[in-house]
Amino acid sequence: MTPAINESRLLYLFEAVQCGTVRAAADRLDIAPSAVSRQIALLEAELALPLIERHKRGVHLTQAGRLLMEYYREQRAHQEDLLAKLQEVRGLRRGHIRLAVGEGFISDLMGPPLQFFCKRYPDITLTLDLAGTNEVMRLVAEDDADIGLVYNPPAEPKIVSRAQMRQPVHAIVAPDSPLVERCAATGGLKLDALYDVPLALMHGAYGTRQLMALAEQSEKYRLTPAVATNSISVLKHFVRAGLGATFLPAFAVSQEIEAGELRALPIDHPILERAEAHLVTRAGRRLSGAANRLLTHLESKMEAFGAPD
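The chain above was modelled as a monomer; its predicted structure follows.
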């Protein structure tokens, strides 16, 4: 006889995996850790399969646990889809949208695009989480975010791009950098023009750093950053302080360029020229009416996707 799944117990397994430990899950659920462990143990007994493995750094799913979590996420997404349909039947203009966003999109997003949307739909609330490329993809794939804004993402069958636009990587320098004159004379910098310039670069989980790594491999040269960070704000401050240069798409520094604080110089390199900005959702996911409105709005209003600045 096929064992039944007690779906009420799936929440405890989900929280333990999301939080990393049983204790952290118990804190989030405001119950005792033993209660979380007991519910997971009962679920394992019902299915006659181990679902998690405990390690020093927390819990990890077994193969059976991964299958169960995939089922749970799908069920949760189906429920959200149903609620979205019911909301549309009621004709409501309210709702909640979860965004996962690469930091480079923030200046573009928080300008006119989001200002206009929030004024037009004041009863729609947003959760906005900043994340690197890999994390944005994971959040969208696992339905922890409805919409993602990501720079040059890897191919992923669970993710579909709803809008994309060529957004090359530029060298970001101070206005008085000697590279400005060199670029003006040649029409674009070669990557080797920056080999002797102190650089600030993002960590490897971010799209710009992954692109730079590919360009380095093609040039058979390794860039050694003076500063490595997970913050685009740090990159901007590094350049504004006259400490060196960095690499970003121009839309990520549009406000600073307009203010005359930074310059974005084109780089003559095929890998860096082909980079793209993407607006993504999970493949097969039916978004709520509110999320669909925001998706269409961002595609038409954001500079990253071709709207005039």
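The chain has three domains: 7-68, 93-166+276-305, 169-274.
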